[in-house]
Specification:
It comes from Citrus unshiu. The chain is mainly alpha-helical. It folds into two domains: about 1-95, no CATH class; about 115-163, no CATH class. About 70% of the residues lie in helices and about 0% in strands. It has seven helices and no strands. It has helices at about 5-35, 40-50, 55-65, 70-80, 80-115, 120-135, 150-160. Helix 1 packs parallel to helix 4, helix 2 (about 40-50) crosses helix 5 (about 80-115) and helix 3 (about 55-65) packs antiparallel against helix 4 (about 70-80). The radius of gyration is 24 Å and the shape is elongated. The N and C termini lie far apart (about 75 Å).
């Protein structure tokens, strides 16, 4: 089995470039954190899409694919094709949503465990509203596409929850 050293070199150079981009993006995020800087959404997305590591991992996955991952394939992926960008956006948003859910759960727990200035039923209302938002937006935009939550509303009106 003959190896094409030039092709292997090109593949590795493209992969290393992706790794460098990730390291630079991590550095930028660390700088924001240490300076207490909150970037605008566009600036955040530009950097945080890179820190999903999606482009780098997609490139790395090509390394062991043999002949099908030729020079043209590596040039294609290094040009940031739309499928990679779209996948990065999905990955970033999913990660941010889960991260924020964990943060919110911790905040909610803190709000319930630590004595507060307001009565518990008021805190329960806030928690219940968060639960409603989860139902409305869990699988689809139930606010815009109300047919998604129609059965929930019907059930609530037919069988109200006692309080």
């Amino acid at each position: 089995m003959a190896f094409n050293l030039a092709l292997i070199t090109i593949k590795v150079i493209i992969f290393v470039y992706q790794v460098k981009k990730v390291v630079q993006a991590y550095f930028e995020e660390a700088k924001w954190c240490s300076e207490g800087y909150f970037p605008k959404v566009e600036e955040y997305m530009q950097v945080s899409l890179v820190t999903t590591c999606y482009h780098m991992l997609a490139t790395a996955s090509f390394l062991g694919m043999g002949k099908i991952a030729d020079k043209q394939a590596f040039e294609w992926i290094s040009n940031y094709p739309k499928i990679v960008k779209a996948s990065q956006v999905i990955c970033r948003l999913m990660d941010d949503i889960v991260s924020h859910e964990v943060q919110y759960i911790l905040i909610l727990m803190h709000g319930f465990l630590k004595p507060t200035e307001v009565a518990m039923p008021l805190l329960e209302r806030i928690l219940n509203l968060a639960r409603v938002m989860d139902v409305i937006y869990k699988d689809d935009d139930g606010y815009t596409n109300s047919y998604v939550i129609k059965d929930y509303i019907t059930t609530l009106l037919e069988k109200p929850v006692p309080f």
